[in-house]
Please model this.
Amino acid sequence: MFKNCFFLILLFFSFTTKAENIIKIGAMADVTGPSARIGNDCQRGYELAFNTYSSEGKVGSHTVKIIYGDNQNEVKTGLNEFKRIVEYEGANAIITTRSHISMAINPLSLQKKIPILGIASHPKFTKQNNYAFRFIASAKKDGSTLAKSIFDKGSKKVAIVTLVDDSFLATSESFSEEFKSLGGVITDSIELLPTEMDFKSLIAKLQIKKPDGIFINLGIVQLPHFIKKVKESLKNISIFSNFLINTVDVKNDLGYLANDIPYTESEIGGSNFINLYQTQFKNESPSQISYSCFVAMGATLQAIQSIQEETEYTPDSLYQALKKQNKILVPDGSIEMFEQEANFNSVVYILKNGIREKY
Model:
């Protein structure tokens, strides 16, 4: 029944009664660079949402144009792309991946009164800017969810290894706080720069401290290499990780070594979304990032739809419409919005031969 209602909604979106208005939406992702596969997942989410919630580029009485950008997972590039998309292209809102880029853009978004919809888990993202909206589970929720789950499963003494990155550090901090509040012990909390690839001294330190487990909260380049080293040198230790373990590159690199490692990830829609995604993108499976980007773009287009009866569209109209949203329609139901954050559930999963299962 919902499927029928959903497609009736889509038909309604294509109905036009007023003079044409053109609204430009910026859509950034890291589509080149070392994490390009994640960025391309996001871009597919943008494209699918645009095709789902618009009809030949029309949403209600408005023509909507998507201005794509590549932040390359670098702050300087992200800032330059924001300026290009907003100042030169005239975008009325911008969606972007990556916490460090979203946090860097936040002051510009506030200054120019341009809504930023971030696939950004940094806990301060929506606190520092009234124009910021979050569309992924927060780092605080991810960290605390994993800590509670593994404590309940029997791990009581854990080391943490974290990439020096605001979002990763915030997740590890939340993990540590929750784990200690439950009565667990953090034996070490070690930070690694993105360029560090020699893990010998770190492994030796962990061998001395003998934790029950290690929360390996590293980026896509370091993560598989560090997991391999731990598997080689610390035979009887449990490993916990982040959502990057469920990315294609990391799974291909680790193979069977990725099996049975608990990690947190937002829920990825339901069967209707997955079918929609795989119909448009053959031989591809959606990820946490593709779903988050789909929802962020969908929220923007639904906000535009809600202001179609206004006499004259203004940039502030979109911001006000986004603020008023209390839920986002998605193919499998809806996602609630609360205090400018989409209420994604953070769930602990493990991988079994590349397929994720609830832990």
Confidence is low (pLDDT under 50) at residues 11-19. The two ends are 31 Å apart (CA to CA).
